[in-house]
Amino acid sequence: MVLKESHRKIAEAVLKKAQSRCRGGIDLLGVYGSASTGDLHCRSDLDLLIVLADENEWPAVSEAFILDDEQVGYDIYCTTWRMLEEDAECSGANISKLMDSELLFAGSGEAAARLEALRNRAREILESDERFGKAQEALQRGFTPYALAMTADTMAKKRAYAAYVISQCMDAVMLFNGRWFRKGDKRTFEELEGLILPVSFEENIRSVIRAENGNETDAALTALLRSVMDMLRREEKRPRPSAEQLRGTYEEMYSNWRGKMREAADRGDEYVSFMSMAFMNYMLDGIAENCEIPEYDLMEDFSALDLGKNADILDEVMEKYLQEYGKAGIEPKHYSDTDAFLKEYLG
């Protein structure tokens, strides 16, 4: 690690001030970013990991300022152990502060060991199948800004929300590959080289950025999100469903939607028919997230003009789903009447 003279002086000043002004002292002081990646240039700022023993003493150390001779702005801010613990759970891929900081000072051996334990936790996630779940969670967080972008009434808002979607897609891809971002934005696409990527990943991102109107932005953003979804789904390894995972699900569907669909058809209630099919499809998709069952696209053939047909489709899917019960070695519970149920239930 090579520090500019001004960076060395600032780091020393932070340590000195923390030790003299903070009664709890300082647990960690480290450097990450361009100084540790070899990307240091004349206008580089300083990325510091500062962990105080007492987070309430932040104001004594934190500062934001500009050095006129360098034309560089600096923001010195502190990090809590809680923030590092969140990074260690890999909710995102921007965890370089945790993983890459080179320590200039540790207030105790315990503090240094605690940092290393958090790094090990992150490595454990990134080196195991747990990373796939983290990638899915990152992608899920992109859905809300995607919806906001699609419904935004100005290009300014649409582009701003699109940036959040791009960020979450980036996180999902990096976590899927068991990586984190080590360098700055200017090296983002270099860090993606050699990784498993969605189809046309960089091209789709650049299409979002270059879009000149709402329709172009919507199309590019949709293509980007779909490509990431397809990659995660394609690579996902799901176990065969167990009896414990499926038991009661068929009966629940029967209870919630089968009778309701028939009643909706009799009354001509297209709203109930539509929502019932959709929510049953949603339940099936939720089961499929955790175990390997077929996809059931109930909504593909929904008809607002033939509600009886919708009820038939739901019945057909339920019959097909019963095959999964059989594979898991279970059967739906049936009783001839209430008394028969109560006899077993209370017995």
Measured as a percent range, the helix fraction is 55-70%
Please name the CATH topology of the largest domain. Beta Polymerase, domain 2
Total DSSP E strands: 5
Q: Quickly count the domains.
A: 3
CATH architecture of the largest domain: 2-Layer Sandwich
Structural class: mainly alpha
Instruction: Find the CATH superfamily of the largest domain.
Output: Beta Polymerase, domain 2
Strand sequence of the main sheet, in spatial order? 2-1-5
Keywords:
three-stranded antiparallel sheet, 5 strands, mainly alpha, elongated, 347 residues, 3 domains, Beta Polymerase, domain 2, two-stranded antiparallel ribbon, 16 helices, 59% helix, Four Helix Bundle (Hemerythrin (Met), subunit A)
